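Re: beginner question about structure tokens

> Can someone show what the tokenized structure looks like for a real chain? I only ever see the sequence side.

Sure, here's an example I had lying around. Input first:
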Amino acid sequence: MLIVATLHRADPRATVDPLTGRVGTEGYAGTASHADRCALEHALRLAEVFGARCLAVTAGPPEAEEVLREALACGADQALRIEAPGTPDPAGTAHLLHAGLAAHGARPDLVVCGDRSADGATGTTPALLAGLLGAAQALGLIELAEDNGTTGPAALRAVRRLDGGRAEVLAVPLPAVCSVEAGQVRLRRASLADTLAARTAAIPVVSVAAAPASRVRTGPVRAYRPRPRALPAPAGDTPRARLLALTGAHTPPRTPPRVLTPASPAEAADLLLAELRGLSRDAG
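And the corresponding structure tokens:
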């Protein structure tokens, strides 16, 4: 059984040039997000339960190997980097992960991902990857563990957060792709010996073809503008008359404004309530 933990390297302290808008990152500052660390810990725990192998995978440049070395230090059995210049979109990332695992000869039974990365990328990559793998998907989970019920020995028990403080329990069959939220579990601390061994560990690298161009074309993004409505011209021979017709200032019935001068706070409250009751009757 093979459990894959997908990791994404991002720089949470990226800088933006105020003149050009170019985003700059430092190679030493890149790290995995809290959600990815949570996904790695879930993968390690499930690998211990099922007696499976844990493979840490990332798609990115050579600097992305830092997150893989951290995974090896924490207990991952293998690591794999998929060559990916730049930052592909979620569909491109899912294609790279699927093609890279196939080129490496890995057929995962379970893929655990973070629900979002540190650079603000949305959690659509796990859903796209599940579609490419033909696997079940359970996204946005707060718990992920072995299911000891009647759904089978290889099924998972997952808990997903719902609106209104509710939650739902899922029985997830394998193979599956699951994404987890950050903050539910904490990644275990690596020992000094494992950390030193991971610094010099050889990490396999595979290169795959880029994702095919999408046949769906998107146009430029513009602000929403409702369709104009054809309205009749206001009646009146002069601009003032037409303005009065548009605003309805002199159209009966009209309640002229009044200035209320109550003598005490209690009288002010009574006058205010009376005015509100009058307005509600007029509206009804």
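Each token stands for a local structural state, so reading them left to right follows the chain. The radius of gyration is 30 Å.
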